[in-house]
Amino acid sequence: MTKKIDNFLLGLLWLMTIALATTFWMNIKYGFNIFSSAHWTYLSELQAYRTDIKVDFYISLIVAIIVGLSGLYMLMRPRTNTFFIEPTQIPPKAEQPETLTQPNIIIEQPKPEPAVQPTFNDGLKRPMGPIGGRPAPIAQNRPHVNPPVTTPILKTTQQSVPESQHMAEIKSIFEDAGFIIKPCSRIAKLNNPIVALSYDQHLWIGIENATAEDVTDAIQTIVTVFEDTLGETADDITVHGCIIGSSEKPINPDLISTFDSVDAFRKFMTEHPNTKPEDYDEELFDAVSTYIGTVTNYIGKQ
Asked: What is the C-alpha separation between 52 and 60, in angstroms, rounded?
């Protein structure tokens, strides 16, 4: 509604400017006041008696009308904003794992070592047996060999921990309320935050069990990108943070909201769903939605 009032005032100001400029020109050139009814009556009498009137008099009026209507159209016509981010060369970085890992202990038994075979020195004579001078069995002279001691080897494997069920539930609450979810792996110190866009260009950053300071840094990061790429029109997009599962009271409640539990957050979103405003422009919203997706993808790779 505010944009419609602004457009109306701009159009009125433009028509007044054209009218004053036309009056000034017609007065100094032809001595004709376009705001005087007597002058228009005199002009009509001249036309009725077919008196010769300069052609450039009519041309001046026609040009003034065309300029006024053209400028009014340019101010009132619907616009489709195109947003883009100039690509930059970013050195590749190793992706951070999205889930925590915990060690899993496995005991692996090594293969037994082969038994030690006894050796005899050829310079030593084997003891002779009592009968027929036969040598005593070799087995009787083999040294005692202890069996190899098996030492357990500890081997660790990585086992992924499932993603927080609360974050999935928070994302579902945003979707049920009609918000548009934009994937984002990271914003500043926030890992896998929920980024949701409303029809009135209000951007929510939802996270569980985070500090107000970290959420503030994330908001500042994304607002900085908006200002660098959009300039003055960055003010059209509002960014707001919400922390679920935190009893901490933020310093600026207009910037960050806190909810004690997921149920409290669900109740709030049920009472404040995403609805289309009166001046909703589908083409403009699609352009903003695409732009937000590009920004979250860009920030997540930083």
From this structure: 16
